[in-house]
Design brief:
The chain is mainly beta and 228 residues long. The protein has one domain: Cyclophilin. The chain contains two helices and 13 strands, in the order E-E-E-H-E-E-E-E-E-E-H-E-E-E-E. The chain has a 13-stranded mixed beta sheet with strand order 1-11-10-12-5-6-8-7-9-3-2-13-4, covered by helices on one side. Strand 10 and strand 11 (208-211) form a beta hairpin. It starts with 18 loop residues before the first strand and ends with a strand.
Length: 228
């Protein structure tokens, strides 16, 4: 399930220098994606943004997320998910997402990159916002979140905030996550990111190990978000 991931407090979100595998040292596998710049962002307290009380009558058509690895262009589903697009674009206009780190990458069964939490812990939300309702939910069937889907992450009905996930391969999930966009450019980068993989830190020895659900080994920073 796409929940707000609670991160181990000891994990540094800067790339861990040495990755270990139960079988072999991680030096045998790539730890970067070609073309990605070093990240400069750090986890930080979510800024205060005025929450829109009503659906905007004039919503943008596209959102471009500029990362240290290139741009991801999203076609916004304003007609199907007007409330969600209103909330997300309000955050984007306030620069809420700028200089934030994508905190979760999954590579087995569930194929997503999760972003939108300035704390980079998986538990952050816009300060003072109340969770808002779900909309544009898919049918409960195979590949109901196909490659290119952009949807909200939540901790249950009506708990949407700022966290969202980008689907890079067809994925089946419970139909609980609002679909609000479609990636039209940048999917190739997400696939390369998944090939490098994700990691988690073992609490007992403090070492980083490959994991199918964890932090991206190639760190991803949202530098800015533009709307058109």
């Amino acid at each position: 399930m796409i929940k707000k991931l609670i991160a181990p407090t000891c994990v540094s979100l800067v790339l861990v220098a040495t990755f270990m595998s139960p079988v072999a040292q991680a030096a045998q596998r790539p730890t970067t994606v070609s073309g990605c710049a070093a990240v400069t962002a750090k986890s930080h307290t979510p800024m205060k943004v005025s929450e829109p009380a009503v659906i905007s009558k004039s919503l943008p058509k596209t959102m471009t997320i500029v990362t240290n690895c290139g741009s991801i262009v999203i076609s916004l589903l304003s007609k199907q998910a007007p409330l969600t697009v209103t909330k997300i674009t309000a955050l984007a206009k306030a620069k809420y997402f700028n200089s934030s780190l994508c905190h979760r990458l999954t590579t087995d069964g569930l194929f997503v990159l999760q972003c939108g939490d300035p704390t980079a812990s998986g538990s952050g939300s816009p300060t003072g916002w109340k969770g808002y309702k779900d909309e544009n939910l898919p049918a409960n069937k195979a590949a109901n979140y196909p490659a290119g889907t952009v949807a909200m992450a939540n901790s249950g009905p009506g708990t949407n905030g700022s966290q969202f996930f980008l689907v890079y391969k067809d994925t089946q999930l419970p139909p609980n996550y609002t679909i609000w966009g479609k990636i039209t450019s940048g999917l190739d980068f997400l696939l390369k990111l998944s090939e490098v993989g994700s990691y988690t830190v073992n609490q007992s020895d403090g070492k980083a190990y490959y994991a199918s659900d964890g932090y991206p080994i190639q760190s991803v920073e949202i530098k800015s978000v533009t709307l058109r």
